[in-house]
Amino acid sequence: MAGIKVDMEHVIVESQEMEKEEEVKPQKTKRVASLDIFRGLTVALMVLVDDAGGEWPMIGHAPWNGCNLADFVMPFFLFIVGMAIALALKRIPEKLVAIRKVILRTLKLLFWGLLLQGGYFHDLDKLKYGVDMNRIRLCGILQRIALAYLIVAIIEITTRQAQSKELPMGWFSIFKLYSWQWVIGACVLVVYLATLYGTYVPDWNFVVQNPDSVDFGKTLTVTCNVRGNLDPPCNAVGYIDRQILGINHMYPRPAWKRSKSCTKNSPYEGPFKDDAPSWCWAPFEPEGILSSISAILSTVLGVHFGHVLIHMKDHSSRLLHWIGMGIALLVLGIILHFTDAIPLNKQLYTFSYVCVTSGAAALVFSAFYILVQ
Question: Which domain of life is it from (predicted)?
């Protein structure tokens, strides 16, 4: 969660701009108060877990499998960005204009992501000009949001013809109206699951960069030779990031360092066990390439809730749809986790994690909608 507050300030500003910058001047567009309150709650939650997560690890990020309070922050923001996409882009009549705005905003998010999390403001007394290009962190919170925003916004723009259509009668009419978005979402899920469970992960090694380790400067080897493993050292998410990003460009303080396998006082931070496995010292990118592909699904679900708000005109129909879908997602995610089919895991951004966090976002947003609309 280090640096998340600074990063999310830009996310908040960007999502608010998305909703209001395209308003027609003669006609003042009404803001969605429940979405603003939900955004404010998420910011407050971010501040709480960022400042108090170290003292109360039960609200900080789960070391590996599981879902603590801090693990809801990222998917809540992606859900909010998704709703903002649906509400903002419907007010831009020309596709090329909309695409240009989306690309520009994506580049801004990428720029600030690299600037804020890439190393420019970390250890300025040790790094030349504030950054070491050989060890700059390439991925991060804003980079993940930029990817999800770009892909989902482009999909929204290219299927904008549905915006002008009347919603036909039927429980599943809203899904039929945006069927291509759900097809693309399903393709994203298939690609993610196929890669996660189908990629062969060989043995790998790394140089210990932590000066507190007795092995500082040594090259350690991690034994894997497996396929479809979801444990910390041998999953496809980490393997792909090591191959594409390079291990020196990954996050050096992953949450797994607080796991029972590594730390004496787990889930608190502290000294490692004497027999801690070698991978405890290794970096891992929690906002990596494959997990960010899965994170697109959180934004797709947020866009769907925006579509419901646009097309369904009465409050009861909206709430019935939102609450029903939220409960269904929660139940599905919990079943997948407790049957050991797909564990809840923020670091891997598993499908069960998408379901539980998106379901929670749906219910929290619905509660605010009931209170203020």
Answer: Eukaryota
CB-based burial label for 32 (10 Å; 0-12, 13-18, 19+): buried
Residue among 157, 224, 228, 223 at smallest CA distance from 196: 228
186 CB neighbour count, 10 Å cutoff: 12
Angstrom distance (rounded) from CA 336 to CA 330: 10
272 forms beta bridges with 263
Question: Alpha carbon of 133 to those of 52, 206, 208, 288: distances in Å?
Answer: 32, 18, 18, 18
Residue 247 carries which DSSP code?
A: G
**Length of the chain, in residues:** 373
pTM here?
A: 0.87
Read off the pLDDT of residues 7-62 as tens digits, 9 standing for 90 and up.
555 555 555 555 554 443 444 556 788 898 999 999 998 888 877 766 787 788 89
If phi > 0 it is left, if psi is from -120 to 50 it is alpha, else beta; for residue 295 that is: alpha
Q: How far is 257 from 271, CA to CA, in rounded Å?
A: 10
Amino acid at 150: L
